[in-house]
Design brief:
By secondary structure, the protein is an alpha+beta fold. The protein folds into 2 domains: 220 residues, Rossmann fold (3-Layer(aba) Sandwich); 117 residues, Beta Barrel (OB fold (Dihydrolipoamide Acetyltransferase, E2P)). It contains 9 helices and 20 strands. Strand 12 and strand 13 form a beta hairpin. Helix 2 packs across helix 3, helix 2 runs parallel beside helix 4 and helix 3 crosses helix 4. The chain starts with 8 loop residues before the first strand and ends with a strand. It binds adenosine-5'-diphosphate (ADP) and magnesium ion. Magnesium ion binds next to helix 1.
Length: 360
Amino acid sequence: MAERRSLPITISGVTKTYGALKALDDVSIDIASGEFLTLLGPSGSGKTTLLMVLAGFVRPDHGSVRFGDEEMITTPPHRRGVGMVFQNYALFPHMNVFANVAYPLRLRGVARPEMEERVGKALDLVQLGELGHRGVHQLSGGQRQRVALARAIVFEPRILLMDEPLSALDKKLREQMQIEIKHLHHQLDMTIVYVTHDQREALTMSDRVAVIDAGRFAQVDGPRRLYERPRTRFVADFIGESSFLPVRVSEGAVRLGGDVLRLSEAPWSQAERQILVLRPEKLEIVPDRGATDANCLRGTVSDLIFQGESVLVYVRLAGGEQIAVRSPSRRETLAAVPEVGQPVHVALDPEDAIVVPEDP
Ligand code: ADP
Ligand code: MG
């Protein structure tokens, strides 16, 4: 196998305080060479601070950051060799597209013919091959963000850092750019650390997602595992839609009211009071409990909401809690949607039963 250009990143015990506030609280993670890792969390959770620590603009109080075998903590930003893309593009407004993208090469003293070739290649990669002569003010938001991307990759960095690079774009363009950035990641050998507060974007793009809450990692996992096996209520709530029901755990049995639930995996926590996480699309309204292995919840339809591609059926359970069941709008399922007031059975496959502890 050819030698990799991209570098692994090792973050150990990084803490950053601002006065009494712990923006980062003892954060550690190993990011593999060539991995696409996303930092996902709500506003103020510490995402940008961690990215700035990697870039060298923020010096942590404690901890270590290594690129490959090399400690970076005292290395200034311009010596770290990382590409960066930010939310607000930060292009030079008085320069045309070519000059913007060529800038990192000029800083590195690259000669003109090579510069032209590499800028041309970078612009082709972001599908702006024809626009080198354009002024930055003559570009759309999406085009500007592509220029920023081209500028970040033109010197072939081994590590690329991106802080909410698509958040200023409208939904269609954002989704298109997500796919383009993924393709770029496959074409170029780079380790990418990507920041977003958009869970769908994180699931779409990443090899792994680190969910960050108040300066700490709540969970680091692949998209599917994160969605199907959240380890805390915070993660279950932040990623995907959920209803929550209180359950009691004792002697390995999980009880919802009087019923023992069937689970494919025992809860990881031993706590007595825990929460059953129900994803609306994993539930199904069934005519009666039948002879299946599924868990069965009984209730009454309290509301129906038609949402185009699916129908949300709200069911009030005997205990008074309300849960949501999503039914796809295929003709045959639509015909079977019950009416408000109708008693129903809701089936939950043991594979889809997620039990997490209450957040501390
Ligand atoms: P995010 O990018 O996840 O929205 P940030 O990393 O920007 O979060 O901020 C994390 C926390 O640190 C926030 O509470 C923020 O107000 C605080 N913070 C960030 N930078 C500074 C600073 N230079 N001075 C004081 N507080 C800061
Ligand atoms: Mg931020």
